[in-house]
Amino acid sequence: MISTISMPPLAPTPTKFSILYLGVNSGTSRHRAQSLMRLGHKVQIVDPCAFLPTGRLADSWVHHTGALGLAGSIRSQVLAAIRSAEFDLVWVDAGNLVSAELIAELRRRAGVVINYNVDDPFGLRDGNKWRLYLQAVPFYDLVVVVRDCNVSEAYSAGAKSVLRVHMSSDEVAHAPRTVSASDRMKWASDVAFVGTWMPERGPFMAGLIERGVPLSIWGDRWPKAKEWSLLKRCWRGPGLEDEDDYAMALQCAKVCIGMLSKGNRDLCTTRSFEIPSLGGVLCAERTPEHLALYDEDVEAVFWRDADECADKCEQFLTDEQWRIRVARNGQLRSIRNGTSNEGVTQQVISRAFDLVRVETPVLA
Fold first, then answer.
1. DSSP, residue by residue, 48-84
2. pLDDT(186) > 50
3. How does residue 3 score in pLDDT terms, banded at 50, 70 and 90?
């Protein structure tokens, strides 16, 4: 059973802060930074990835060694980017490129330094990617995680204070679009999956196809699948980086498949929040967290394997009224859950400034 997470009601933030946002300036990281701006905070975004060498070799080095040998250069360039500026708060998003030494320096510029990580840095999937993050955990005032298992793991790694929140959709990026006839012609599908290939996903999707599910897949790396000869006729292109394209693919699908990353110990993913926000039907693996977020067969549908997923898809495709009700109910439930960026970032900010500052660990 997952722990209950109490989400505060959305309300104006009483105090506006100057925030240094140290994170990737794209994707869901940028969405979180923009949500802080919408709440009225003054936000300066500095993307540590901008200071890395370009090319696949550099990306591989960062992933497999944890940016070995690069932390000092990144630290110098981040400090040069902010010059002599001071902040009320530093928000480090992810943190795989942020060293404990950089956090110590940023503490001289800000009252509070926090980390938010939507990934699973304490798991085994990513090897050494989180080397710098794990070294830096004790130096944050607050460590924010999105998995129950990460709470105790963060404390074991030396965290002073840990907050567990839900992943979240974005009020702007995942707001329903107006769909034109030409949009529907381009993006319409019966059953859609938008996401990257992973080893466990190939057999699952092949199982759906073998059961006759009319599947459409958008995502990277799918030609690597052993089942590619079967899957390629359902593959409609690479990952959808454009926010409008992503929204259209989910909005124009009758059913949207939500897949977990087993290596990331997922019980839900960002799709679990984005699909209902966009008004789509979430059809995902049955987990304790999904069952806590949505009423099964009323606000979303769940399955245990490819066969049950195929059954659910078949039922939805032949029962339009049920499909419409579930989509609408899921969208309303996502609003009631408060699992959107402004609600979550406001919760993080409030907790950060409620903390009593404790003595900072001394760097060895």
1. GGGGSPPSHHHHHHHHHHTSTTTHHHHHHHHHHHHTT
2. yes
3. very low
**Residue pLDDT, tens place only, 209-267:** 999 999 999 999 999 999 999 999 999 999 999 999 999 999 999 999 999 988 889 99
Among the listed residues 343, 299, 19, the one whose alpha carbon sits nearest the alpha carbon of residue 171: 343
Q: What is the C-alpha separation between 112 and 29, in angstroms, rounded?
A: 19
**Run of H or E residues at 265:** none
What's the chain's length in residues? 364
Task: Quote the tokens at residue 254.
Answer: 């009758």
CB 171, CB 243: distance < 8 Å: no
Range in 56-60, 112-116, 171-175 with the lowest mean pLDDT: 56-60
How far is Cα 163 from Cα 142, in angstroms, rounded to an integer?
A: 7
**Owning domain of residue 283:** 181-337
Q: Are strands 235-237 and 42-46 parallel, antiparallel or unpaired?
A: unpaired
- Helix (H) or strand (E) holding 354, with range, is helix 341-354
CA distances from 324 to 72, 292, 331 (A): 54, 21, 11
Q: What is the number of domains present in the chain? A: 2
Regarding whether 198 and 91 lie in a shared domain, the answer is: no
82 and 206 co-located in one domain? no
Does residue 318 fall inside a structural domain?
Answer: yes
Q: Is 335 helix (H, G, I), strand (E, B) or coil?
A: helix
Given this model, what pLDDT does residue 63 score? 86
Average pLDDT of every residue of the chain: 92
Say if residue 226 is in the same domain as residue 161.
Answer: no
Same structural domain, 112 and 207: no
Q: What is the pLDDT of residues 344-364, one digit of tens each?
A: 999 999 998 887 444 444 454
Rounded to an integer, what distance in angstroms lies between the CA atom of residue 345 and that of residue 336?
Answer: 16
Q: Is 179 helix (H, G, I), strand (E, B) or coil?
A: coil
Q: Which residue has the tokens 């760097």?
A: 363
